[in-house]
């Protein structure tokens, strides 16, 4: 069972308290009606599904109930970092270099 | 007592005898015996029949890896367990044991005919042998195969035992309490770490329990062992026995199954049978040792043929010699020590057959000293004996030729094909393995977790090597935990080091095609089967495994995986690592469902949510149905009524006078804040800006894909406050979806969302007399039609309680929904029942609610919709705000597929005379005489008898249904095809006149 750091509670807690919520950094278009069918399809359905670092959303559903973002390695399942919703995608190389 | 018990040997308690029965015969063993060791002490090797061929089988191992000696055990009603490993189950007084896979009895078994027909049951026989004629499959082949197949028989009664569950946090978890594990635990505990040490056996010591003659740090092995265990206790190490690490999960979480009572004569009342531990460890040391491999040759499965290490364990740990005259066949040095121990205990060693050309010098000397015939560079080509091995045929191998075959009489044949490091748990962590060419074994490579592997588990052999390695692992773990520690060498005298080679099946001078050389004993897979699988095109080891079933039995290939791989890689012509190793998956050993379920069974399996009015419904004889986690009153039968009669009566009473319904399970969400109306506009399809305070509206919620997700009536209580209702099952989903948009897409909106489902009890009153029942109880609200019209909401008092009162209708009748704080729900219900007595007020349940709403064509989300239904499909376009700039799902309503013709649309279905009840879920076709497979147009979603219409009616989703009104379609059902006419869904009071009162 994974341990997940909630960036709002600032605690590392078991996976049971959290729920996965899909890929991160997919922003709902401000004016959906202006989008072509293809653009709207891409927003609705097309996801990156990478092997390696995946930016994804989680919710601390049995805790503070906040949505937050995480970078997770889909090969090892390890969480590389978590950060608050709305924050920019972290530069993981620089973060690693700093550590 | 028994003839094979050796005096002065073993750790069983000779002062305490334990009686048990095996297939009805009473036997005696000692405290500390397993079923297998006690039976072997009586000379009983035959303990079961094999899975496919029903061949006689005896124990081949002495631990949980045992593939053959699987038995049924029982402690009385409900406490029967199939496939208990006789080699692991400790004796207890009164234990009842039965053998499996035999009829009429173990010694004479009719199913053994399969063995003569083995040519029919070769690899992949499922796919080819029983194919023709086609019609034979259902009537002949399948029933016979099903009757003959399977391991053991399943328990028939509910398991009356209790199972427990606990969490444990520890600095260091050491898995396996053999020499390496004990050394690791000790090193870490001495350095100050907090340590948990566990082992699946009844006592700790691992291989040391089978090797009393080595001397460790100057003390005999068992004395050293006792000293170390005492020190571990002194250091506060948590020691757990009869505990198996079944799985290694993310971030050092290890699942342990602790067996608590199966070994006890008398089980204390309420004691749990097993306990699941979820252990989170900072560091883990895996010291699981190695598993001995069989050799693969014709007749290697006969009772009396077993692993040399197992024979050594039966002798030294249990004081049982497995035979009087043994032949050893080995490719590893370790079997020599087994031979020496047995020889010293009085078993005549007829020969040691070493497949290698040059045995180690000192071992050869020792054999010679004991007068043992050592046949180096030899092979075994077969065995004889029906229920027990009688002789073994040995032959010389030189230059690839097998010559000079001769039979050697024996009553047991002890084999050793080397040792497989036990890396199951390591593999659960996604740690990678690497093939070691020198050892011909897979060893741990990259580890994804904070774990160390020590001892035989990483290919080491001999006590000094494994003990010292365990010490090093313990030190490394302690240092990683921030303690100071130094490695030290643990010295051993009389050590038993060794090396060996790994073989495919042994060479033979017989016909390989006729050899019954077993690789997987439990699934009856032979070397020939694996070669056949490769010949028939299987190249990956995963395909070979599935085609032959090698390694797929309950032992999960603990003994067969590597032998299978060696044969497959030889057949494919590639090196073993190129052919690959199958994936290890938890659990390590078979684990009861009870252990996984723990406390979550019966009423604790999942919560049952009950409304404040539930107790009233129960005491008034309601039948209940589950709706998501809720238990809801389904209907209220009177004496002699069945469901149909009760529902028809409830429907009529509601339409004719007044019905009362507990709607408390409806989801309720309070949407509040300065931006509440904007939020509602964005979430729901409907426009909300102009909805006045005190007014209510039907709200429709779509997913971003344009399909209906939920619906419910929403009331506006203030400029900034909406009382949202959702479907019973959708409440949590809707709140989650709202929170998601609010938190992540529109964090600028100033809105709070609060779940209030359980804060309010909700009672619906419907029927022409509803106002008359309610009005006398209402304070603070004019109830006249003018002051409180349809689709109104007000805050007032009802029966003295603060209330949110809605005038809405899910039945088409004059209707009210009264919300009061949940604690007053029952009192309100009783007040309404009292007030309604003069109108014969009728409590009704969910079934009547469903019928009444269907008569009006109102949908139930999830019944009349299935996640691919748009508002237009469901006749709800009127609920979609045409002038809104955006709402969730709006853009999708213009997607090409959602505007294309031929969508499944909701329509009514009426059969000719109304006497037929169409089945919900039944398919619909245009022409029942078309050839199969028929083109299916859709399916029936709702179907009921209507008391108001005096007939059955149905709703259905049908392709292009809105264009087909008046057309006839057909509904094939088990009793024939039924014609039905497509209608609108407004079945009753289409003009809505009944609301205007």
From TrEMBL, chain A:
Pfam families: SoxD. GO terms for molecular function: sarcosine oxidase activity. One of its GO terms (biological process) is tetrahydrofolate metabolic process. This is Sarcosine oxidase, delta subunit family.
TrEMBL record, chain B:
The lineage of its organism: Bacteria, Pseudomonadati, Pseudomonadota, Alphaproteobacteria, Rhodobacterales. This is Aminomethyltransferase. One of its GO terms (molecular function) is sarcosine oxidase activity. Pfam families: Fer2_4 (PF13510), GCV_T (PF01571), GCV_T_C (PF08669), Pyr_redox_2 (PF07992), SO_alpha_A3 (PF17806). Residues 904-989 form the Aminomethyltransferase C-terminal domain. It comes from Jannaschia rubra. Signal peptide: none annotated. Belongs to the GcvT family. Residues 615-884 form the GCVT N-terminal domain.
